């Protein structure tokens, strides 16, 4: 069963920045790009490296361990859409970022 869970204050995630959070045992990375908040699994499927130390380029994040790059909108690995990380729906309400987990 999924539900909306407050993950952070809206002011905690600045433009072009990342904030790692853990919700119900799930490691999630919040990222703000062009004013929009994205929530993506904070784990590269290649070797479970945390994505939080990665490099943001537009709507993509490059894993800091082996440079695998994922689309923040879809979770797809840019070299093969058969490999993905989970993405989560977000909403802003009353100054908080909530994630559907």
From TrEMBL:
Domain of life of the source: Archaea
In terms of Pfam families, this protein maps to:
Rieske
Q: Which UniProt keywords apply?
A: 2Fe-2S, Dioxygenase, Iron, Iron-sulfur, Metal-binding, Oxidoreductase
Q: Which cofactors are required for activity? A: [2Fe-2S] cluster
**GO MF annotations for this entry?**
2 iron, 2 sulfur cluster binding; dioxygenase activity; metal ion binding; nitrite reductase [NAD(P)H] activity
What the entry lists under CDD domains is as follows: Rieske
Protein name, entry field: Ferredoxin subunit of nitrite reductase and ring-hydroxylating dioxygenase
